[in-house]
Design brief:
Bound molecules: iron/sulfur cluster
Shape: globular
Number of domains: 3
Number of helices: 25
Helix content: 40-55%
CATH class of the largest domain: Alpha Beta
Distance between the termini: 57 Å
Structural class: alpha/beta
């Protein structure tokens, strides 16, 4: 499409990037059919093509309104539209750029700002989030069922093997996952320890930056990115061969570090190296598959599984189908589900900020996942897991835990 960006953004790096993305869009509308919010609201402006048009108008100088912001807020940034688009339009990057401009032009109410501030700070604070979780678990018995279901059950981590191997990978510890489900990173550490790779967490690191970045606190998000680069750098210099994130929502962010700090001369090269080393566990396991397969007890605890591929895994990192292959290869039955490309409604803080759309997406996702009566629901992202768990009595687990349980010590 033709563009004529306004002077305020035309000659900035964001302006040039947005212009290149907009020019690729040919308005075909193929993406609309696979957009979860369009499928619920049937409003062009709640689909990718309409949102692209809204962002284009704003970047061309038309003042944003509360309606512009509402339609962008309703977007999950699931990037299903990117997978569908035949022209390679990078909608996610365009949405980041457009949202930052709209946020400046249409300030939020004091209540909205307070809610977003509390989410950004509270979820990232291990002390605050940990205390809230402890309280919720203690009070579960007196909470209404709908609220009690939102409190994740405690999961013991199990042993994290000491760093005894020469081969090492860094594990991104993140913010909420170690508090809600410490068993996930520990399971990954046990799996790779068995084949001669030590997984180490680095002190000084924390939230990958996605939480504030996607709440439009983009500078704060980038500060967290720099902090992580600094924390991981000594281990990278000592030969760590990968930076692994067991939560795909954070993994897709770490893979983007090079791009995010491309304009920062002090961090550009280091951030690019971090992005180059960033891996989802499925890539690590896939690369070591022969040695892992040799240690799998095929006759141990096979189950009927419905796998939910997080959007960040299938659309963000383009790793569609890989986890399902591993689950089948270790002897589980993976049942087919309808519309696996659609978001479950979790999407970071989306389930809290857009509860009605998020609930409807969850209801639809669980209906499709439970149609074949699986014993377990499995995913690859803590956000999806906790969101789905609020709507089902079936256990909801991370796939790396299923692999850990199948391996011989
Ligand atoms: S990112 Fe997802 S919700 Fe947003 S426009 Fe694209 S498909 Fe729709
Ligand atoms: S599918 Fe791609 S080119 Fe077509 S309208 Fe959507 S973003 Fe534009």
């Amino acid at each position: 499409m033709q563009t004529n960006l306004a002077a305020f953004i035309r000659d900035t790096s964001e302006g040039r990037e947005a212009d290149a993305i907009l020019r690729k869009c040919v308005h075909c509308g193929f993406c609309t059919a696979t957009c979860p919010t369009y499928q619920i609201n049937f409003d062009e402006l709640d689909g990718p093509r309409g949102r692209i048009y809204l962002i284009k108008e704003v970047l061309e100088g038309k003042r944003a309104t509360a309606t512009t912001r509402l339609h962008l807020d309703r977007c999950l940034t699931c990037r299903s539209c990117e997978t569908t688009c035949p022209s390679g339009v990078q909608y996610g990057r365009l949405a980041d750029i457009g949202r930052a401009v709209v946020e400046r032009q249409v300030p939020r109410s004091a209540t909205e700002r307070a809610t977003r501030y509390a989410l950004s700070k509270g979820l990232r604070s291990k002390a605050l989030f940990g205390a809230a979780l402890l309280f919720g678990r203690a009070a579960r018995g007196v909470l209404p069922t709908s609220l009690a279901r939102k409190v994740p059950r405690a999961q013991p981590a199990g042993a994290w093997p000491p760093p005894r191997h020469e081969r090492r990978v860094i594990v991104v510890l993140g913010c909420v996952q170690p508090t809600i489900a410490p068993s996930i990173d520990a399971a990954f550490a046990r799996v790779v320890d068995r084949i001669g790779i030590s997984a180490v967490g680095m002190s000084g690191s924390g939230c990958c930056g996605a939480l504030p970045y996607h709440l439009n606190e983009q500078q704060e998000g980038l500060d967290l990115v720099r902090r992580n680069v600094d924390a991981w750098w000594p281990a990278i210099e000592q030969g760590a061969e990968a930076i692994v994130t067991t939560s795909s929502g954070c993994g897709v962010m770490v893979k983007d570090y090079g791009h995010l700090l491309a304009d920062d001369p002090a961090y550009k090269a280091k951030a690019a190296r971090v992005a180059e080393l960033a891996r989802d566990p499925v890539e690590v396991i896939g690369g070591e598959w022969k040695r892992i397969a040799a240690r799998v007890a095929m006759d141990r605890g096979s189950q009927r599984i419905a796998f939910h591929p997080p959007c960040t895994l299938q659309h963000g990192m383009k790793l569609k189908g890989r986890v399902e292959e591993i689950l089948r290869a270790i002897g589980h039955e993976v049942v087919p589900i309808a519309d696996p490309h659609l978001c479950c409604g979790s999407a970071g803080t989306y389930s809290i900020l857009q509860p009605e759309l998020a609930e409807e997406l969850k209801r639809r996702k669980l209906a499709s996942m439970q149609a074949e009566r699986p014993a377990v629901i499995v995913s690859a992202n803590i956000g999806c897991q906790t969101h789905l768990a609020t709507g089902t009595s079936r256990p909801v687990r991370h796939w790396i835990e299923m692999l850990d349980e199948k391996m011989l010590n």
